[in-house]
Amino acid sequence: MKQVYRSIFTLFIFSILSQNLSAQYGTQFENRGFEQWTSRGVNAESEPVHWHSGGTATGDYSGLVSSQIEQSSQTRPGSTGVISIRVFPKDMFFVTANGNLTNGRMNAGSMSPDGSDNYNYTQRSNNVFNTPITTMPDSLSAWVCFRSNSTTDKALFNSVIHGDADYRLLASGGGDPSNMLVATASEAFTRTAGANASLSWKRLSIPYQKNGSCTDVRYILLSVSTNQTPGSGSSEDDLYIDDILLIYNPSLKLEQLSSNHFFTNTVIGIPFTLTGTMSADNLNSSPNRVIAQLSDVNGSFDNPTELGSLTTNTSGTIWATVPDVPESQHYRIRVVSTNYPMIGENIQEVSIEEGNDVEEFVATSKVYPNPFNTEINISADRDVKNITVFDVYGRLVMEQQVSGTQLTIDLCELSAGTYLLKLDYGDSTSVHRIVRLAH
Q: What value does the CA radius of gyration of the chain take, rounded to a whole number of Å?
């Protein structure tokens, strides 16, 4: 007769961990939606936090330039924010001073629009004017509306990833020092609407190209101009920008299951690792779901059985009940995602055996306080034999043999976060979600 201890907690498909952490997008530009603004510079001109124009410029002619930017309530389609940024040119000394925006710092060092002393640069000595980065993004995306009377003039997005230097993006094109260049993402684009017309938005998606000799990823610098040619364009032009996002290549992997042999109607944890940009928040897309699937009896996923899912952009564990299916040694389990669509690596072959129809004892237990600081109390109506604690990835972090119905367990070694506490009564189990508070 087959021996099996059947779990009695019914499908926790813990969308616990439905940690809607849209923040796990990798390093991003600070204030990338332009919602926060501050006053900086000699004339206390308003600039978005961590974004800059002429009001904070350096250089011999910095006193002649101003912040050619302003807040706008015209946001991109589907935005959850209330502010975008408008960048605009000005007529100055018989030329058009292009509107300029950067996460670095502007230097106005020449009266010639394309002079070598006019550039945007990373200033490492001041954190307000630099953005550190350690991982290469795949692309840069942003929503823009460029209004112009010209059908040929082009606005410009130009970004570089560079090494440990005060790298300069020159107004005339190119960068310096050239041996510190890692990668570039650049796109010039024509108008989306006529000058003074109603706004018409488009989403840019600009890939980074590894075209530099440097491999030391340290900083990211972005320069935006109302015209790709310095001194060109018209003072009637303007450029609206909203919700910039760096995109990182996503990956999905099924982590090792606790066993490759399961019984029907038992609860299993299916841990997965998910990295990169999922459910990009400037794409107006549906939230990403990670779905655990079971193949048919022959290992085919042509018509898979859904075991459970999590709505998440991060790693986690799906808790699911093994369904009543025919016995076989050739089932397979995999995870897939919906947005960005992927089939996870490390598909695993498992065997499934029918569980016994033994009478189950449904234990009543209480765990408190929850959330807890260092200790939890357990009150059960039957003797607890063993306790185990798993992290959100399904990994065992603590196991302890116990005996009793009233227990106090020291969990001070656990880091702050969410865990699963499993109580084993000998012929049944129960599982509790517990949360440790920050120390």
A: 29
* 316 SS3 class: strand
Residue 9 has pLDDT above 90, yes or no: no
DSSP per-residue letters across 398-436: EEEEEEEEEEEEE-TTSPSEEEEEEEE-SS-EEEEEEEE
How high is the pLDDT of residue 245?
93
**Look-up of token digits 């049944």:** 428
Chain segment 305-350, per-residue pLDDT in tens: 999 999 888 888 898 888 999 999 999 999 999 988 899 999 999 9
Q: Please check whether residue 210 is in contact with residue 203, taking contact to mean a CB–CB distance below 8 angstroms.
A: no
Which burial class, exposed, middle or buried, applies to 285 when counting CB atoms under 10 A from its CB (0-12, 13-18, 19+)?
middle
d(CA 323, CA 79) in angstroms, rounded, equals 41
**Tally: H helices and E strands in the chain:** 0, 31
For residue 111, what are its two tokens? 């009266």
Which burial class, exposed, middle or buried, applies to 51 when counting CB atoms under 10 A from its CB (0-12, 13-18, 19+)? buried
CB 300, CB 329: distance < 8 Å: no
Question: Exposure pattern of 307-339 as b/e (b: 16+ CB <10 Å)?
Answer: bbbbbbbbbbbbbbbbeeeeeeeebbbbbbbbb
> What gap in Å lies between CA 61 and CA 118, rounded to an integer?
10
**Is there a contact between 88 and 66 (Cβ–Cβ < 8 Å)?**
no
CA distance 178 to 181: 6
Q: Could you report the per-residue pLDDT of 80-134, keeping only the tens digit for each?
A: 899 999 999 998 777 888 999 999 999 999 988 889 999 999 999 999 999 999 9
Question: In 10 A of CB 211, how many CB atoms?
Answer: 10
Whole-number pLDDT of residue 282: 81
**Residue 387 forms beta bridges with which residues?**
400, 423
Mean pLDDT, the chain, rounded, equals: 86
What region, left, alpha or beta, does residue 167 occupy, with left being phi > 0 and alpha being psi -120 to 50 degrees? beta
**Distance between CA 430 and CA 8 in Å, rounded?**
6
Q: How many angstroms separate the CA atoms of 117 and 115, rounded? A: 5
pLDDT of 225-278, one tens digit each?
Answer: 999 999 899 999 999 999 999 999 889 999 998 788 888 877 788 999 998 888
- Amino acid in position 306: E
